[in-house]
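Lecture 7, part B: from sequences to assemblies.

Below are the input chains for today's worked example.
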Amino acid sequence: MICCKECIELLYSYLEGELSAEMETSLEEHFADCPPCIAFVNTYKATTLLCKNTLKSNDIPDTIKIKLKEFVDKNKPDFL
Amino acid sequence: MKFSDPTKDTLTEEQLVKDLQAGEMGSFEQLANLYQKKIYTLSFNLTRNITDSQDVTQEVLLILFRKGHTFQGKSAFSSWVYRITINASYMKLRTRKKEPKVSIEDILPTFNQGGFQYEKIQDWSENTESLLFGNETRDIIQKAVDLLPDKEKVVFILRDVEGLSSEKAGNILEISIPAVKSRLHRARLFLRKKLANYFWEYKTRKESK
Ligand SMILES: [Zn+2]
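Predicted structure of the full complex, as structure tokens:
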């Protein structure tokens, strides 16, 4: 039987659907019997989501937006 | 909701690149509007510094104003914007004093000799909703990302935060697709471990109250 360590190494490819059907089945058979791995998979997925939501929500501060607008007005090319 | 319609974005971008090539005047403001948030956010996630990110955004916009019209096609254009933003951000990081390197090796749970996990792993994935909106959690997540080595960090940001494909990320960073995938997996493992430690402490703190 495939061990936890191997499952975790293959986790990326498993989630991307890149494993052979045979490998996929052995991972799933392992997960069915291994609560720590289930917890690992869930938290691995949650990590991606949490980080994405947090980092995506960094907007440009209003003071910087104003400075950028001034900068664009001053520096945009003017061919006419 | 803040989600933008991706199909709409794509159309605007394509049209914009065409306008630029045709030398349309108004397109420079549109160009700035469309790209400045992307440039600023990417730079801020790499440098975590407001002034540096403003500088980078201005530098990149200037380059876009000067050279944007030389681009054929939208895909090449956006890859180019990502690439010059990353390079300009790295130039900023280079002038800073070096932080001590964090090892990315210690990212796996503990296994026994047969390769099985024997510690009890806490599954906090169900509780993230209630944790997510606290400023403390935000802080922890940003700090954890900041601790990633540069190579893993930039891959993580392009793939998981910006949502680019492995192909496109590999193209921007000029590395192979397998390299993108293995760096992304390592980055996720590293971040998972940092967050697991944090949620564990958080739980213990709550229970001891
Ligand atoms: Zn297992």
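Note for the exam: Chain B is about 70% helix and 0% strand. Keep this in mind when comparing with the next example.
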